[in-house]
Amino acid sequence: MARPVRFNLITKDTSDRGINQVDLPQGHMGEGFFATSLDKVVGLARKNSIWPLPFATSCCGIEFMATMGSHYDLARFGSERVGFSPRQCDLLMVMGTIAKKMGPVVRQVYLQMAEPRWVMAVGACASSGGIFDTYSVLQGIDQVVPVDVYVPGCPPRPEAIIDGVLKIQDLVHNESLRRRNSEQYKALLEGYGIQ
Amino acid sequence: MPITHEHIKEKLSTHLGEHLVAWEESYGMACATVKAEHNLKTLTFLHDEPSLGFRFLTDLTAVHYPDRKGEELAVVYHLHNLVENTRLRIKIYVPIETPNVYTATGLFSGANWMERETYDFFGVNFVGHPNLIRVLNVDEMDYFPLRKEYPLEDQTRIDKDDEMFGR
């Protein structure tokens, strides 16, 4: 039975009521089985269940609140669950100006996150210090933690933040399971004095 | 009924004599400049004298005047008589080589963090302060950022060059 009121009349497929499913990874399918590589399954699962940790210090944080709200709805991308403990989260989203005194706090939060972990610098201040070219402001969080995705803007619109999350999803999806053990990755962390 | 500036000036000059260096009334607010070593004597007198009663320290900060040789750093006290609603500024000047000023924490507990902040940004050494360490800037900072000889911009950056960023 059709619902009495339906606002969105143009959907791709009316039979599934607008519910989208992710595409199957490459593999072999037969009756009652589906075979693919573990990498792809793990990447698929991780990609669509990222738990973000919002580290919001200023106006970019307000844009993030709009992003989490019903209008832009980050939950569509599997990031419904915003965690406020770094120990549970996969993605550190630093949004806003980080003063030099806050630098060790960002670093501490990063250290408390379990591998695999990703970092997104949202906005000009987190990426480069922005307009605050001054003695008291950290000139980009990449001075204290490694950053995966930078989102430009001052502040970036919610669409830009979502685009950044999609870029993170691409990284998560395509990352080799052994990347975190690679020499290159260890050298990167070594460069930040982590382990 | 606010206290008149004449009354404050008369009381101060009687009490301090020649240690009251200058007196000005800019924009309707009185400002007395006294000798640096008499700052506590002045503040205590203004605090205790019944007809003055400046018992609230609104603000304490410093100004750096690089051109005034021998008195480069000015420490400014903003005082307020809350009963009569009268405000007063007290200024003292100290040389930048030996910026020693007696602490006002014994008189105003609120001066504690204000003096730490003034030390943090200008390097004024408040003699007798119980805990004179930085309060706002990072502990590793090895200079006093609001002194005029230090540029505003963060000097650790190498990718922001003069051509593009007008440094």
Topology (SSEs and partners):
The complex is a heterodimer of chains A (195) and B (167).
Chain A: E1 28-30, E2 33-35, H1 38-47, E3 52-56, H2 59-68, E4 91-95, H3 103-112, E5 118-122, H4 123-128, E6 149-151, H5 158-174, H6 183-191
Helix pairs in contact in A: 1-5, 2-5
Chain B: H1 5-16, E1 20-26, E2 29-34, H2 39-48, E3 56-64, E4 73-81, E5 86-94, E6 100-102, H3 111-122, E7 125-127, H4 162-165
Parallel strand pairs in B: 2-5, 6-7
Antiparallel strand pairs in B: 1-2, 3-4, 4-5
Summarize the structure in words.
The complex is a heterodimer of chains A (195) and B (167). Chain A has 195 residues and is α/β, with parallel strands linked by helices. Chain A has a domain at 50-171: Rossmann fold. Helix content of chain A is 32%, strand content 12%. Chain A is built from 6 helices and 6 strands; from the N terminus they run ββαβαβαβαβαα. Chain A has helices spanning 38-47, 59-68, 103-112, 123-128, 158-174, 183-191; strands at residues 28-30, 33-35, 52-56, 91-95, 118-122, 149-151. In chain A, the strands form 2 sheets. In chain A, strands 3-4-5-6 form a 4-stranded parallel β-sheet, sandwiched between helices. A two-stranded antiparallel ribbon of chain A has the order 1-2. In chain A, helix 1 packs antiparallel against helix 5 (158-174) and helix 2 packs across helix 5. Chain A is flat. The mean pLDDT of chain A is 87. Chain B is of the alpha/beta class. Chain B has one domain: NADH:ubiquinone oxidoreductase Nqo5 subunit (Beta Polymerase, domain 2, 2-Layer Sandwich), CATH 3.30.460. Helices cover 23% and strands 28% of the residues of chain B. Chain B is built from 4 helices and 7 strands. Chain B has helices spanning 5-16, 39-48, 111-122, 162-165; strands at 20-26, 29-34, 56-64, 73-81, 86-94, 100-102, 125-127. Chain B has a 5-stranded mixed β-sheet. Chain B is elongated, with a radius of gyration of 18 Å. Chain B starts with a helix and ends with a helix. The model of chain B has no long low-confidence stretch (mean pLDDT 90). Chains A and B meet through loops of A and loops of B.
